[in-house]
Amino acid sequence: RGIDGIFGPGSRAAIKAWQKANGQDPSGYLTARQVRSLAEAAKIRADQLAAEAARRKAEEEQRDSAYWRDTGRGGTEAGLRSYLDRYPDGLFADVAEARLAEIEAAKRAKAEAAERSYWDTVRVKDTAAHYQSYLDRYPRGLFADEAKARIKALTQEDTAAVVAAAEAEEAKVVGNGVLRLLVENRLAAAGEDPGTIDGRFDKTTRRAIRRFQRDQGLTVTGYVTQATMVRLLAVP
Hints:
The protein has 236 residues and is mainly alpha-helical. 70% of the residues lie in helices and 0% in strands.
């Protein structure tokens, strides 16, 4: 159910089940002592989750940095793409994307007018079919590597159904600006960079959400699902 601070039938049933499991009167209403007991248990679990997330994050960042040294740091297009292929939301993803943008800008300066115009149209459409049409027309074109990389990325992305479901769930879980501000603040507290904390989710926020989900062992969608919100609220 949604997190709204209101105890409905579902919440009361859960409280009764907990009380019964702990040998207490299943009234559905919490006493002060029971509230303290739940808070203590939640604190212990939150600390455990935080420790597990920190360990996973440290291990992932160590692997991330090592792969960057082996591939992306040299600044070659192949190396940068290899890094982003493995770590699309990695520690050096912004740097890699910026360098690739510079490489593409240099290519654009050399491109023939007809090819450049066609490539610009393909980039706006940003579908696997359009990138393939570019490769069919320019099999050795200046942007062939970029077209192949985008085809690979688009075909490996989460299915539309999973993303649509996560997006719809987010609208219910954090359906207003206040809750989105809370999400951004919790992401920052977790050590992620949500960008400007303004209650609006942009590319930087989505990347931070994906990184947090990956660290927490959740399904990585970039949208704040119920499970993601629970983990965010558990951040110390």
